[in-house]
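Below is a filled-in request sheet from our internal design queue. Each sheet records the structural input a requester submitted and the sequence that came back. We keep these sheets so that new team members can see what a complete request looks like end to end.

REQUESTER: design group, bay 2
PRIORITY: normal
MODE: inverse folding
CHAIN LENGTH: 198
BACKBONE (tokenized):
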């Protein structure tokens, strides 16, 4: 298992051919293999497709945004680029992630979004041979944000749909802004919550 960099450089090696035994399913082809980054959010393991990630960053300094929604933990600088640091755990029905000294966050693709999500822990890179559909396991609070699930050490791990989670946060931010129309607007929170992508 490969751990984070600072640069996020997942390995994408080709699958090794395995002879097919009669009566058994053929091994997964490279096209069906899913390279993921395994993380802990709110105390639970999740997998994220590495195609949605740019790199892992260390959050050395976090600048609070006055009037921002609770899930916008603040702003951080990465080589001169200002990123919005989001906590997605509460959207998944989980406790908030801790943001302490040398905390870690995953910088998302596309770069124009300028968003990173804080995590409790980065476990490393792991490739899975099969993805199960979302409805093929017991329902839970974060099933709505899963692209499916993967089996690791005999336990299901949700393959998180990160773009969908961030879109949900943006929708909640806009809704909160409409409800508080009579209050001083929080332009900073809206402009830094992935607004540059649209």
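RETURNED SEQUENCE:
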């Amino acid at each position: 298992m490969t751990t984070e960099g600072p640069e996020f450089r997942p390995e994408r090696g080709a699958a090794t051919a395995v002879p097919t035994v009669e009566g058994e399913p053929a091994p997964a082809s490279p096209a069906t293999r899913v390279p993921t980054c395994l993380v802990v959010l709110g105390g639970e393991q999740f997998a994220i497709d590495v195609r949605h990630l740019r790199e892992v960053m260390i959050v050395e300094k976090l600048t609070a945004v006055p009037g921002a929604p609770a899930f916008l933990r603040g702003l951080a600088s990465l080589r001169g680029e200002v990123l919005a640091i989001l906590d997605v755990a509460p959207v998944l029905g989980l406790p908030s992630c801790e943001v302490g000294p040398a905390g870690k966050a995953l910088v998302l693709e596309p770069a124009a979004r300028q968003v990173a999500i804080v995590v409790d822990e980065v476990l490393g890179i792991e490739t899975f041979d099969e993805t199960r559909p979302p409805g093929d396991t017991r329902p839970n609070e974060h099933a709505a944000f899963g692209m499916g699930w993967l089996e690791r050490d005999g336990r299901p791990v949700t393959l998180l749909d990160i773009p969908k989670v961030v879109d949900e946060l943006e929708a909640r931010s806009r809704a909160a802004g409409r409800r508080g129309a009579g209050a001083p607007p929080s332009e900073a929170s809206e402009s830094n919550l992935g607004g540059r992508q649209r």
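SHEET NOTES:
- The two ends are 36 Å apart (CA to CA).
- The longest strand covers residues 34-41.
FILED BY: M.R.
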